[in-house]
Amino acid sequence: QVRLLESGGGLVQPGGSLTLSCVAYGFTISPYTMTWYRQAPGSDRELVASITASGGRTNYVDSVKGRFTISRDNVRNTVYLQMDSLEPGDTAVYYCTAAQVGRPVYWGEGTRVTVEG
To answer: How many CB atoms lie within 10 A of CB 87?
Structure first.
C-alpha cells in the first residue's frame, strides 16, 4: 500500500526548532521530487520546500528561506524538514508529497505544527 507518513510535529515556542520526517511506504522515493506543503487555518495550501530526486537542488518559499532546510535519504526512503527560528506564522498542518513533472503524485496525511508561547 502506497503511503507517506509524516511525524515530528507538535507545539513549540517562537524561536524554537522542530524536525519533520516523512517516510514512504509501498514505493521508493528515489525518482521523485519531494516537497513539503503547509496549510494554515483559513488559508490556502502553500508549497514550502522542494528537493530534486538527486538532492542536488532545493527551493524554498521566501518566508522560510534561511530558517528551514529540506533534505532526503533515499536509502531510508525518508525526507526531512528541519525548521529553525520558528514563528507563529509557521503554524499549520505540514504535508509531504512525492511529485513528478511538477505535480504531486502522492500526499501524506499531515502533521500539525503549532508555534505559540
So the answer is: 14
